[in-house]
Amino acid sequence: MNASPSHRPHPAEWTETQSLLPSAERDLPAGRHQFHKEQMMARIHEDLRTSSRTSGTSPVAPVKRSNPFLRRAILLPAAAFALVGAVAGGLTLAGGGTDGGTTALATGPALTTKIGAADAKGAPQLLERISLAAADTSASAPRKGQYIYIASKVADSYIKVDGDRREAVSDELHSRQVWNSLDGRDGWLIEAGKTSDEGITLKSDTPFSGAYDALAALPTDPEALLQRIYRASDADRDPEVPRDQAAFVAIGDLLTESYPPAEVGAALYKAAAKIPGVVAVDDAVDATGRHGVAIARENPVAGERTEWIFDKKTLRFLGERIVVVKATPGNPLKVGTVTHTSAITERAVVDAGKQVPGQAS
Question: Residue 139 has what pLDDT?
């Protein structure tokens, strides 16, 4: 099936930049993106374990989760990230279903967007408001044995290779559903075009870094939290990724496909306000076409800006996108290309893995 603008929400926000190519083998960045991300997140929780041994609190195991559960956040330069969709598309995943693996997604022209104006002075005030909104929640804490359910819509743009020819293309916007136990050792993933219809297991001896229990163990003092994230990203950061950008992305990873306790979510936003280069953006659009304001930071090496998008009225987190905002020698994508876009469509606590909210257990 060919991807066309009619298959994407709100096409006025995304314009066609490249023609559709026939099926071809894709370049792979040899897993470097996932390796660095896994190592960085493991450092955060190894640091937690070290701190807990000295403070007498309960330890949190380091994370070593398989690729399918890790989000596609940029920790490498633009050229490498442009190929991240190829990594996901090239995986063969064991799991439920008749074929036991993945089905390639349709690809079409790369997604592009209008770039919102950045305001460095407005970022601290906006993050303070977002932090207050995150802390003011009536949601009850999940109980032992329950699962965190996250439903989203996602798409990536990347470079597709056909012999000597390279073109910017995108995944078709598709659904993603994740279930994760509170301790992060048991989970399930269903992602259209990436897994079979029944999905794949995420059971692991080492928990997912964004699991509820792991997030609940993080410090709620913004300065202490930020320093912990800096130490983790410094230890395993790709040398081509600026230190402040790696910390900003790490915070985004802990906020996006997770269910942080209110006080931890508020602390993460306050920690982000302390990172140099963070800006407010007057208008950004998530994967389903919802407009909002954004908190963002540009990676000057890659020429890309990571944006966290929030509802303009409620300041509820809507999704994330990564946009090329500046031409750089190492980035083959045009300014305005959306290299990653996501929208959280549902976030809930359920009583069992693979249970949909509202469905009896």
Answer: 77
